[in-house]
Specification:
Blueprint lengths: L11 H12 L17 H7 L3 H11 L4 H4 L5 E6 L11 H4 L1 H15 L2 E6 L5 H9 L7 E4 L6 H12 L4 E3 H21 L8 E4 L3 H12 L7 E5 L2 E2 L9 H4 L10 H5 L4 E4 L8 H5 L6 E4 L9 H7 L4 E4 L14 H10 L7 H16 L23 H16 L10 H17 L8
Helix pairs in contact: 6-15, 6-18, 7-8, 9-10, 9-16, 15-17, 16-17, 17-18
The structure holds oxaloacetate ion and magnesium ion (MG).
């Protein structure tokens, strides 16, 4: 286990409450339920032999029928090999299972997408690729999760090329989409622009690389970015740089995170607990934007940051602080839209559509009375905002159709909006008193 991190705001009681939540009234957070009645012999002859055989024959004659006669078209695999679980590191697939179960619960709770968590004892990228590719008959989409860099890059790229269903590495692109929206809104609040700011990104793993690419596509200048990893600033003089980091090396004499941060406008942390000290924060430009996104222990705690300066705009990945910059704001809805139009791939256009829809939703009126207005402590929608399910899948579905990857284009977007509204009503009405879906 990792030693107790300095940026842990958790009390022993909160830790125990989390373990109890996972343990009772039955182990884990998920179960499988049937969607068809099997009460009589007639039901049995439809669900099983002989009726099931007719469904098999229909699919053998026309594979597209699989998405209509089985749950495949609404089923996503949440796949990990446990090599980069949250900010906890390579704790293995078994210890990563609570996260994958959790992601599956969120798919269902927020977007009605069924998801199975698949933890694979497969560190070798080739082996992992072969196993996941072989699962295509089962699933309508693949959400790769908590797989370490640099292997995650080739794993995602190869699978996306090999499979005819959407493959999406959540830690890269889900995080990048939410960060893109949060930074757009934060810049608007402080009157700065992507083109004018300087950023320091700490942690150039899966999420770091994807976030930098996303922010550059939104207008951040590559020469205004300094990337920092465990060995310090990534500069052109560094020997043995991993190829995934080479494009981010700069010709600079800055060597440490502290050097890099002087005068910077944006700190993006995707590293580990406590890497940003109050002294470093003090040297940043006016109205600094600090996204301390390591989970569950951020690079700096909100209380520590505020003790140093009151002009900071701060986000973390956690649900217990304001501005939760977490990929939960993206992956359920991105897959909802992608599955609904039978998208074969996730395109850049679909990702940008998500960024724009998220940023715009945050600027709307609060989703419930008493919720904070758009502002420094409300940069990004609240993960419980039900409008996420109404806005994001529509944006994604449209982009998939524009990009020509939709195998079942939506004929009438207004009808699709109504379908999402009734799904939303079902999901919210289905919330049992104890909160299960
Ligand atoms: O699980 C979360 O809260 C966000 C995430 O993907 C990660 O930290 O790896
Ligand atoms: Mg993750």
């Amino acid at each position: 286990m990792t030693s107790k991190p300095s940026a842990d705001a958790t009390t022993p009681e909160q830790r125990q409450a989390a373990l109890d939540y996972h343990r009772w009234p039955q182990p884990g957070k998920l179960e499988v339920t049937a969607t068809k009645r099997v009460a009589t012999r007639e039901d049995l002859s439809l669900a099983y032999s002989p009726g099931v055989g007719y469904a098999c024959e229909a699919i053998a004659a026309d594979p597209a029928q699989a998405d209509l006669l089985t749950s495949r078209g609404n089923l996503v695999a949440v796949v990990t090999n446990g090599t980069a679980v949250l900010g906890l590191g390579d704790i293995g697939p078994l210890a990563g299972k609570p996260v994958m179960e959790g992601k599956s619960v969120l798919f269902k709770r927020f977007a009605g997408v069924d998801a199975f968590d698949i933890e694979l004892d497969a560190k070798d990228p080739e082996r992992l690729i072969d196993i996941v590719a072989a699962m295509e008959p089962t699933f309508g989409g693949i959400n790769l999760e908590d797989i370490k860099a640099p292997e995650c890059f080739v794993i995602e790229k190869t699978l996306a090329g090999r499979m005819g269903i959407p493959v999406f590495h959540d830690d890269q692109h889900g995080t990048a989409i939410v960060v893109g929206a949060a930074v757009s809104n934060a810049l608007e609040l402080v009157g700065k622009s992507f083109e004018s700011i300087r950023m320091v990104v700490c942690g150039m793993g899966a999420a770091g690389v994807a976030c930098v690419d996303m922010l550059v596509s939104l207008g951040l200048k590559p020469e205004n970015i300094l990337a920092v990893d465990r060995s310090g600033v990534i500069h052109t003089g560094r020997a043995n740089l991993d190829p995934s980091k080479q494009a981010y090396a700069r010709d600079t004499d800055k060597r440490s995170l502290a050097d890099a941060l002087h005068g910077a406008d944006l700190f993006l942390g995707l590293s580990g607990p406590g890497t940003l000290s109050g002294d470093m924060l003090a040297t940043m430009a006016a109205d600094p934007i600090v996204l301390a996104l390591a989970n569950p222990y951020p690079e700096i705690l909100p209380s520590e940051a505020r003790a140093v300066r009151d002009d900071v705009i701060l986000g973390t990945g956690r649900s217990d602080f304001p501005n939760q910059i977490n990929n939960v704001l993206c992956f359920p809805y991105l897959f909802r839209g992608a599955l609904d139009v039978g998208a074969r791939h996730i395109t850049t256009g679909m990702k940008i559509a998500c960024v724009e829809a998220l940023a715009a939703l945050a600027r709307q009126a609060p989703f419930q009375p008493g919720a904070p207005e758009f502002g420094r402590d409300s940069l990004i929608p609240n993960p419980l905002d039900p409008r996420l399910l109404l806005e994001l899948p529509v944006a994604v579905a449209k982009a998939a159709m524009d990009d020509g990857v939709a195998s079942r284009p939506v004929a009438d977007m207004n009808v699709y909006r109504q379908c999402l509204a009734s799904l939303s009503a079902r999901l919210n009405a289905g919330l049992a008193e104890d909160g299960t879906v």
